Amino acid sequence: MNEIDFLIKNCALHAEHLEKLFRLFKKDVFALALSIVKKIHIANDVVSETFLRLYNSSGKYKPQGRGKVYILKIASNVAREQLRKNRRNIELEDIYTINPFEQADSKLTVEGLLHSLNEKEYQVIILKFYNRLTFAEMSEVLKAPQSTLKSRYETAMGKMRTALKMEETENV
User: Fold this and answer.
1) How far apart are CA 36 and CA 72, in angstroms?
2) Under a CB-based contact definition with an 8 Å cutoff, are residues 123 and 95 in contact?
3) Do 72 and 32 contact (CB within 8 A), yes or no?
4) Distance from C-alpha of 119 to C-alpha of 133, rounded to nearest angstrom
5) Using CA atoms, how far apart are residues 105 and 108, in angstroms rounded to an integer?
6) Residue 24 to residues 18, 139, 167: CA-CA distances in angstroms?
7) What is the pTM of this model?
8) Which of the four pLDDT bands, split at 50, 70 and 90, describes residue 20?
9) Are 68 and 28 contacting, i.e. CB atoms less than 8 angstroms apart?
10) How far is residue 60 from each of residues 6, 9, 10, 113, 165, measured CA to CA in Å?
């Protein structure tokens, strides 16, 4: 049993274990939640609910060395529940105001590149580069076949490459 599995299994018994898991994964959970719900305040609610559910279900957790995937799967489920619950109230807005990938030295930032992607492509890019998940792990989190996720990834990368090439030709 690795450290993450141990922390998950025992987080209901020791508050410091839950705190450590929160510190380790809050950014990953937030990024995934934001890619689904599109609103910062709802994504923050998803983060809180994710760790509450983790606490409540820790006794049922079966360690398999995939603790991060387990936490992100809970987050994905909570975010989708929030999305269904708030479907009528959710307005699409600019979700890219806080972006850890932003590059200030370029007119066309990574923020702008991500903005050009659809929701599913955006999720794959966030999970691949920000959360550093493999396609197999993404498949578990998003409940989609690996081949579909690889296709979305290639499509998203192609769109971003095209946008970068267009910027380069404009700057010449």
Assistant:
1) 12
2) no
3) yes
4) 18
5) 9
6) 10, 22, 36
7) 0.63
8) very high
9) yes
10) 13, 8, 10, 41, 50
What ranges in the chain are assigned the alpha helix state H?
3-10, 15-37, 40-57, 67-85, 110-115, 119-125, 135-142, 146-171
Ordered by where they begin, the domains of the chain are: 1-95 (1.10.1740.10), 101-172 (1.10.10.10)
Q: What angle do CA 80, 5, 2 make, to 5 degrees?
A: 140
Residue 97 tokens read as: 């105001």
Here the tokens at position 31 are 């990024």
Instruction: Please give the pLDDT value at position 168.
Output: 67
Residue with tokens 């700057």: 171
CA distance linking residue 152 with residue 164, whole number of Å: 18
Spatial distance between the Cα atoms of 21 and 54, rounded to a whole number of angstroms: 10
pLDDT band at 104 (very low <50, low <70, confident <90, very high): very low
